[in-house]
Amino acid sequence: MTLEELRSLVRDFVEEREWTPFHTPKNLAMTLSVEAAEVLEHFLWLTPEESAALPADKREAVAHELADVLLVLTRLADRLDVDLAQAFRDKMVLNRAKYPVEKARGKALKYTEL
Amino acid sequence: MTLEELRSLVRDFVEEREWTPFHTPKNLAMTLSVEAAEVLEHFLWLTPEESAALPADKREAVAHELADVLLVLTRLADRLDVDLAQAFRDKMVLNRAKYPVEKARGKALKYTEL
Amino acid sequence: MTLEELRSLVRDFVEEREWTPFHTPKNLAMTLSVEAAEVLEHFLWLTPEESAALPADKREAVAHELADVLLVLTRLADRLDVDLAQAFRDKMVLNRAKYPVEKARGKALKYTEL
Amino acid sequence: MTLEELRSLVRDFVEEREWTPFHTPKNLAMTLSVEAAEVLEHFLWLTPEESAALPADKREAVAHELADVLLVLTRLADRLDVDLAQAFRDKMVLNRAKYPVEKARGKALKYTEL
């Protein structure tokens, strides 16, 4: 599945339901944070090891939450006319410059600094 | 770009830098929330209308944050052995059942309920 | 109610239940984000005007979520040996220097820059 | 410092700067999530043990972020006419009923379920 196909699927789903008026970028950005927190909630009290070995039912519940994040992310990009694939490629160029392999190797760098 | 290609690109980037030991699902779930909040921050004091008409420089800054969310989301799914494309398809089946067009049309349904 | 009384009430509640081993600052910081998102969720699709005129039942539900944020915030500060009242006073000194009345008046400054 | 004093201090700070028009509950709820994520960011790559033994400079940086959360929480409650002390007391009654000591002891209960 391509990012472009994703965009069409989400757009069709939303437009059939006439939800576009509610989908201001501001509202979608809020939704993205709410969905990310629903992912986070599944990991709250787990040890790092437990988080890497989820039982099947919990893993499926998390998979559904990840799908929600992907849906909202795709929709927000669409509403902003942002091409997610291009934005990703652009960012990776910046990331490679910012974190050269020799310098970054084995260090707990913050993705938030990417 | 497919979700599968994305996964490979992110995995190569991370493995070259030997960051996998830090990438427990728990840590990545935290990072996802932090990245979503960085998107949100751009929309804090905007009116809904302003949020739909960002100036070019701000739009590009948001695009980079969206790329970060996509990167972390892709990585988290990879670490959990979740196939994002399949998870998305599964969730859309649930969404279509939960929000039938006739019932959902024009109502501000919560994505968080999807 | 003082911040010091709050701290004691939360601590007693937690210690009676022997939850302290789970309350690493990392876990509590995660919980704080999850609780903040539960507040946010109530405001997702509201207009600014609607958000300022909540019906009574929704207002009470939000009040309970705000109490959760206060509880977790208090607990996290306690676990870090941070005196919240002192931290607040210190931060307000910085805020007053950063946002002089003459310069900041009527401008949509970001709290995130406070 | 009481919660009532906090409310007055925050209100005076905001009104001097004429920021009230920007402080819709919706905008403040967004700010609360952004501030909570700034706390979270400090803990991203730490082990649970490291998170409980922050170096002094990092501990002070976190204290400032906690003060921001307290400030925004106080302001949001004020704008909603919610008495935080009363909301806290009400919630603790519910918490005590929901998590009886005998049943809850030593179990990693989710604060999000409180």
Structural summary, described in words:
Chains A, B, C, D: Pfam families: MazG-like. Chains A, B, C, D: It comes from Oryzomicrobium terrae. Chains A, B, C, D: Keywords: Hydrolase. Chains A, B, C, D: InterPro entries: dCTP_Pyrophosphatase, DCTPP. The structure is a homotetramer of 114-residue chains. Chain A folds into two domains: 3-82, Orthogonal Bundle (Helix Hairpins); 83-114, no CATH class. Chain A is globular and about 45 Å long. The model of chain A has no long low-confidence stretch (mean pLDDT 93). The two termini of chain A are 26 Å apart. By secondary structure, chain A is mostly helical. Chain A has six helices and no strands. Chains A and D meet through helix 2 of A and helix 2 of D.
What can be said about this structure in brief?
The structure is a homotetramer of 114-residue chains. With 114 residues, the first copy, chain A, is mainly alpha-helical.
Structural class of chain A: mainly alpha
Biggest beta sheet attributes of chain A: none
Helix proportion range of chain A: 55-70%
State the order of secondary-structure elements of chain A, H for helix, E for strand. Answer: HHHHHH
Q: Count up the domains of chain A.
A: 2
Strand content of chain A: under 5%
Instruction: Indicate the overall shape of chain A.
Output: globular
| CATH-assigned homologous superfamily of the largest domain in chain A | MazG-like
Q: Give the strand tally of chain A.
A: 0
List keywords for this structure.
homotetramer; mainly alpha; MazG nucleotide pyrophosphohydrolase (chains A, B, C, D); 68% helix; dCTP_Pyrophosphatase (chains A, B, C, D)
